[in-house]
Amino acid sequence: MNWTSVTVVTSSEAVEAVSYILTNEGAEGIQIDDAADFANLRPGKYGEHGEIVDPDEIPHRKQGAAVTGYFPEKTFMPEIVPTIKMRVAKLKDYGLNPGNDQVTAATVNNKDWATVWQKYYHPLRVTNELTIVPQWEDYQPVQESEKLIYLDPGMAFGTGTHPTTRLMMEALEKVVRGGESMIDVGTGSGVLSIAAKQIGVGAVAAYDVDEVAVRSAKKNIALNPVASDIKLGVNSLLDGIHTQVDIVVANILAEIIVPLIPQAYEDLKPGGLFLTSGIIDDKAELIRQKLTAQGFIIDSETKMKDWHGIIAHKPAEDE
User: Which residues of the sequence carry a binding annotation for S-adenosyl-L-methionine (predicted)?
Assistant: First the structure.
């Protein structure tokens, strides 16, 4: 089976938003080539035979990013490509830099799609404890405390390399004590849910509005036995979900966080934590205001590049 690839040349800050647009328009796979990913790499065993290689010597983008979505060959591209181009251009209305507005389409065979990103994606130590490992890599922990998250990045974004994902993994590592219940809203590849299980969270429910993302998360969960009991489902934010949990995590765009805030407040236990990211500089104050107006107390805020991560909590009964 052949596929049609649609590549959007954009900025690093818009990678997740462009990925969402492509999957929302019907892409059944996403490939990301982001110059920012190489900023996190240090010399290591990246060679074909395990030899030490300097990442600067590996061919890669020097600036910005290219996000490629893979569409079934029967997709009517003359309609899809202009729609994607229009939606990408509108990202500037949400405070994101859409890049140079370049959108191109090409035909690619299934074998190429299955292997093309492997030369770019390598084990990455994201936090003090957590390391993201592509499923095809034979990686041994450097330290006893290191916990591995195996991912197949071929079907959804959220591989741990983007600042928003890293901010949330660091936040989880900071707040989790063990045994908590958690909801992951907009789970994508499932990386945050898997990370939560690795560091001791108890019951985890993960939802995404995109069926492709949910299938991807299911595949990645299968690669990580510690995460086998995660509950997965297709759902729009927390619509229709009425439960009480200790933590709600959402790594989604600020405009989508806004309607989630009252839902998260309802579904958190008193004292429960709301961890959010996907918040670009221009939207940070909006999210702070909405959180405070809802009754949340902001505990801390971290920043990586142009992105913010916020830890807030629902007041305990004695507050």
Answer: 165, 186, 208, 251
C-beta separation of 296 from 265 below 8 A? yes
Rounded CA-CA distance 174/176 in Å is 6
Q: Which domains does the chain have, with CATH numbers?
A: 2-120 (3.30.70.260), 125-313 (3.40.50.150)
Ramachandran sector of residue 270 (left: φ over 0; alpha: ψ -120 to 50; beta: rest): beta
Neighbouring residues of 163: CB distance < 8 A, sequence distance ≥ 6: 36, 304, 305, 306, 307
Residues 6+ apart with CB under 8 A from 202: 178, 179, 180, 181, 182
165 is in an annotated binding site: yes
Residue 258 has pLDDT above 90, yes or no: yes
Q: How confident is the model at residue 129, as a pLDDT?
A: 92
pLDDT, tens digit, 9 for 90 and up, residues 135-153: 888 888 888 889 999 988 6
The gap between the terminal CA atoms of the chain, to the nearest Å, is: 60
d(CA 306, CA 77): 33
**What are the tens digits of pLDDT across the range 201-249?**
999 999 998 887 888 899 999 999 999 999 999 999 999 999 999 999 9
CB 109 within 8 A of CB 296: no
Token duo for residue 185: 């809203």
Compute the distance between CA of residue 182 and CA of residue 185 in angstroms, rounded to an integer: 10
Rounded Cα distance between 249 and 185, Å, is 6
**184 annotated ligand-binding residue:** no
Q: How many CA atoms, within 13 angstroms, populate the side-chain half-sphere of residue 142?
A: 10
- Distance (Å, rounded) from C-alpha 258 to C-alpha 310? 13
22 phi and psi angles, rounded to 5 deg: -65, -45
186 is in an annotated binding site: yes
Neighbours of 242 (CB within 10 A): 8
Tell me how far apart the alpha carbons of residues 16 and 175 are, in angstroms, rounded to a whole number: 25
Task: Say whether 208 counts as a known binding-site residue.
Answer: yes
Cβ(41)–Cβ(55) under 8 Å? yes
